[in-house]
């Protein structure tokens, strides 16, 4: 079974893309700290925003959250 990415790895991947969690959160119209909720608990909207910022599908970042879910 695959493991979810560590939150530090997610944050690092976002930084490598030239942005921050806070910036991605604000761009989505959220409070700057709101997006961090997706790092610790299932939140599909936040997971999608993070995945899009990194350029990787959410089920790759959090395989345990998406096990059994079919994606195109």
TrEMBL record:
InterPro entries: Lambda_DNA-bd_dom_sf (IPR010982), Ner_HTH_dom (IPR038722). Coiled coil: none annotated. Keywords: DNA-binding, Transcription, Transcription regulation. One of its GO terms (molecular function) is DNA binding. Residues 4-69 form the Ner winged helix-turn-helix DNA-binding domain. SUPFAM superfamilies: lambda repressor-like DNA-binding domains. Belongs to the ner transcriptional regulatory family. This is DNA-binding protein. It comes from Rahnella sikkimica.
């Amino acid at each position: 079974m695959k493991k979810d990415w560590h939150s530090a790895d997610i944050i690092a991947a976002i930084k490598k893309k030239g942005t921050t969690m806070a910036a991605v959160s604000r761009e989505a119209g959220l409070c700057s700290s709101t997006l961090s909720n997706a790092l610790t608990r299932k939140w599909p909207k936040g997971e999608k925003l993070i995945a899009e910022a990194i350029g990787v599908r959410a089920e790759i970042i959090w395989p345990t959250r998406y096990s059994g879910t079919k994606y195109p």
